[in-house]
Structure formats: structure tokens, C-alpha cells
């Protein structure tokens, strides 16, 4: 196990009706807020009205910015920065999924910065300060509600890039599993896929002697594998949403990577798909992760066999470690398909001609490698895209 410092400052308010506390939580940081949300799901479900009422009860002035799209865009982030500066806003409340939360975090980064906020995502600038953010989560998926990341798409060139800093951990996140009842089945499945990917990115590591976190990862994966099918059959299954929502937060709040170095290659490879084709991140991951596994499993057969046995209950007497490992990958793919997710690039209408360009962008023209478990160059990324065809 590696040395580590673990400090996740996000306060979690979990359970039925917790959004009623949004006002009190925000008031602890000031009397004016930017309420940031997406394409309108929170208005349709009535969540908007409950949040606004709670903020008013607490004496908080509200400025609104709606319209965050999935794969959130830089142009709206810039508008948000302008709005916060003009109206003297110091706190942002994001109500929605990963896209809304990431957009809020990027606005928070940009307000005190004199240059252009994209400088952080392109690696040109280092973040020194940011406004504070709180969230009301409506979809368990991205884990942004307790993560250090923001992932933004720059429409100028369609670059989707992530930025990480402890300064953008949300101050609080409200997790009411009931808020997810209205999610379409496909969005639920995309969320399950993203949560599993966050765990698997951490699981496939070269760090030795990490049995405790291996087992935490396995338990968290099994929780999703058990509960997502229940949600596919019964969208208002509170108990199953509660399991998935909390597992989704823990999957990405950095607890599961304590003492170990994760991979993250599949995320980088996927981000090219959602940047260029606007596919849902979780759907892209369902296509890329099995292909990545097929490409790298020989690097550590024992770890892949362990994953197959402990997570997918592949029988140890199944045969050789290689057959065991491959059966684990097969069961992951079947699971994705059982949830209605794509597992091939052609299901996302991504043509073969585009693969070279995406591999190029992903590795900055072969000037940088991606991933840690196996360091991948341009040719490797291209081979993974081809395995996903
Ligand atoms: O915009 P609205 O109307 O709210 O509709 C959304 C959106 O269309 C809808 N939705 C959300 N909650 C709903 C609902 N519809 C009905 N009922 C509800 N309760 O779902 C759609 C997808 O929302 P989105 O926020 O895009 O989903 P998700 O949470 O999966 O976020 C995906 C984004 O997060 C990034 C991804 O790259 C992607 O851009 N990620 C962020 C990470 C982070 N910051 O730590 C890590 C992840 O790996 C990921 O990269
Ligand atoms: Zn993800």
C-alpha cells in the first residue's frame, strides 16, 4: 500500500426530503446564490419549487442559470462566470446530475480568475481559489457530488477535458434517492455503468498489497450489479436507489483509491466519444471498458482472474487463469447488455474512419501516454477503439 492523505470535506445529507435543508445549508455561506440547473427535469419533477421555497425560507436571494446540457459546454460556463461577477455571487447551488455539478464547479473556478477558465482544463493555469459549491443530486452516476473533478466540453474544436483540484470539492451534497425515481431507464443504466467504471479504474492497479481497498471495490461493484436490475424493473424502488446512490458517491469520493494508483485510461478514451458524438458518458464507457480489458488483461492475469472470481462469481475451477479472466470480461459485457447499454462503437453510430482522429486527440498526437495500469500510446488507443468496433 502507498502512503496517502485522505480528506474528503463534502458534507453528505442523505435520505427522503433532505432537499428541504438546501436553504439552511446555503445560508451558512451567504445570502445570495446562483441556482444552476439543466434542461428542465427539476422543474418537471417539482424539485425546483421545493429548493426555491427552502432558499426563500432561509432568506437567500436567488439568481438562476438554467440550460446545462449533458456533456456541459464551456460557453454556458463563461456566461455563468459573467453572471456571478455582475451580481456579486459567492456560492453556487447545482441541482441535477454530473453535468450541472461540473458546470457549477467550472463557474466557481472561473469567477476569481482573471484569465479564461479553459486555461485550467488545458493545463495552462493552476487553480489558486474558487467560489464554493453545494449540490442537490438527481442522478447517481458521475460522483461529482463529492469529487475533485469537473469535466467540460469546449465547443471550439470539441475538446472534452477534466480538471481536478481539492478546491472544488462541494461543501455539501444532498442525496435523496427519491429524486432519481423519474430517471429514464437508459439514464439509470448509463449511471450504473459510470459508477462501475469509477470503481474499476481504481481496481486495476499495479500497487501491491491493497487487499482492503480491493475488497471495498468488489463490494461496491456487487452493490451496483445487484441493484441496477431491480431499478430497471421498478424505477421507484427506494431501497435499490438508496444503495446505488450511496455506492455512486463512495465510488468516486477517493476513499476507494486510498493507498493505490488507479488507471483512468478508459475514461480518457471515452471522453473522445462523448466530445465528438455527444454520447452519454456511461454508454461510451460500456463500449470502451470491455475493449480496454481485452487489450490489457495479460498485463496482470492474476488481478483479472481475481476480479472475475470475486465480482462475477466465476467458478475457480473454470480452467486456466486466462479463461477465468476472459469469462469475467464476458460477464461484464453481458451485464451491460442486460441493462440495454451498447457495447460496440457501431451501436453509437461512430464510424471506423473517425478512430484515427480520436486516438490522435486522446494522446495529443502521441506526445502523451494515457492510463497507469498499462501506459497506452496512440497505437494502443487505436487498437482499443478497433476492439470495440
Ligand atoms: O438536464 P436535465 O433536464 O436535468 O436532464 C438530465 C440529462 O438530460 C437528466 N436527468 C438528471 N436527473 C434526472 C434526469 N431526468 C429525469 N429525472 C431525473 N431525476 O439526465 C440527463 C443526463 O444528465 P447528466 O448530468 O449529463 O448525467 P451524469 O450525472 O451522468 O453526468 C455526466 C457528466 O459527468 C461527467 C461526464 O463526463 C459527463 O459530462 N463526469 C464527471 C465526473 C466528475 N466531475 O467527477 C466524473 C465522471 O467520470 C464523468 O466524467
Ligand atoms: Zn465517469
Automatic annotation (TrEMBL):
Residues 191-388 form the Fe-containing alcohol dehydrogenase-like C-terminal domain. Keywords: Oxidoreductase. GO terms for molecular function: alcohol dehydrogenase (NADP+) activity; butanol dehydrogenase (NAD+) activity; metal ion binding; methylglyoxal reductase (NADPH) (acetol producing) activity. Residues 9-177 form the Alcohol dehydrogenase iron-type/glycerol dehydrogenase GldA domain. GO terms for cellular component: cytosol. InterPro entries: ADH_Fe/GldA (IPR001670), ADH_Fe_C (IPR056798), ADH_Fe_CS (IPR018211), BDH-like (IPR044731). The keyword Transcription does not apply. CDD domains: BDH. It comes from the Bacteria. Pfam families: ADH_Fe_C (PF25137), Fe-ADH (PF00465). This is Uncharacterized protein. It comes from Hydrogenispora ethanolica. The lineage of its organism: Bacteria, Bacillati, Bacillota, Hydrogenispora.
Amino acid at each position: 500500500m502507498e502512503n496517502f492523505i485522505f480528506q474528503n470535506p463534502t458534507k453528505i445529507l442523505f435520505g427522503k426530503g433532505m432537499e428541504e435543508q438546501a436553504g439552511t445549508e446555503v445560508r451558512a455561506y451567504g445570502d445570495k446564490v446562483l441556482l444552476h440547473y439543466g434542461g428542465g427535469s427539476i422543474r418537471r419533477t417539482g424539485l425546483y419549487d421545493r429548493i426555491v421555497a427552502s432558499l426563500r425560507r432561509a432568506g437567500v436571494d436567488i439568481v438562476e442559470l438554467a440550460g446545462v446540457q449533458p456533456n456541459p459546454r464551456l460557453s454556458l460556463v463563461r456566461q455563468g462566470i459573467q453572471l456571478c461577477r455582475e451580481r456579486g455571487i459567492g456560492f453556487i447551488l447545482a441541482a441535477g446530475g454530473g453535468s450541472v455539478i461540473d458546470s457549477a464547479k467550472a463557474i466557481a473556478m472561473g469567477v476569481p480568475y482573471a484569465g479564461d477558465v479553459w486555461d485550467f482544463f488545458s493545463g495552462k493555469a493552476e487553480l489558486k481559489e474558487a467560489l464554493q459549491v453545494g449540490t442537490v443530486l438527481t442522478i447517481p452516476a458521475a460522483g461529482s457530488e463529492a469529487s475533485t473533478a469537473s469535466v467540460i466540453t469546449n465547443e471550439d474544436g470539441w475538446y472534452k477535458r477534466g480538471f481536478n483540484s481539492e478546491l472544488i470539492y462541494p461543501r455539501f451534497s444532498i442525496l435523496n434517492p427519491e429524486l432519481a425515481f423519474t430517471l429514464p431507464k437508459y439514464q439509470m443504466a448509463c449511471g450504473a455503468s459510470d459508477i462501475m467504471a469509477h470503481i474499476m479504474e481504481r481496481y486495476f492497479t499495479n500497487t501491491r498489497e491493497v487487499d482492503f481497498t480491493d475488497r471495498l471495490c468488489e463490494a461496491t461493484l456487487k452493490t451496483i450489479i445487484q441493484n441496477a436490475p431491480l431499478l430497471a424493473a421498478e424505477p421507484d424502488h427506494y431501497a435499490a436507489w438508496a444503495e446505488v446512490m450511496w455506492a455512486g458517491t463512495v465510488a468516486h469520493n477517493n476513499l476507494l483509491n486510498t493507498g493505490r494508483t488507479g488507471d483512468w485510461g478508459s475514461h480518457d478514451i471515452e471522453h473522445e466519444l462523448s466530445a465528438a458524438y455527444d454520447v452519454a458518458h456511461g454508454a461510451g464507457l460500456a463500449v470502451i471498458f470491455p475493449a480496454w480489458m481485452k487489450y490489457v488483461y495479460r498485463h496482470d492475469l492474476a488481478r483479472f482472474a481475481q476480479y472475475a472470481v470475486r465480482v462475477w462469481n466465476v467458478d475457480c475451477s473454470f480452467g486456466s487463469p486466462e479463461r477465468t479472466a476472459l469469462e469475467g470480461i464476458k460477464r461484464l459485457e453481458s451485464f451491460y447488455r442486460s441493462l440495454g447499454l451498447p457495447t460496440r462503437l457501431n451501436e453509437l453510430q461512430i464510424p471506423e474512419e473517425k478512430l484515427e482522429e480520436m486516438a490522435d486527440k486522446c494522446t495529443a498526437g502521441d506526445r502523451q501516454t494515457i492510463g497507469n495500469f498499462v501506459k497506452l500510446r496512440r497505437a494502443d488507443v487505436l487498437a482499443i477503439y478497433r476492439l470495440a468496433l
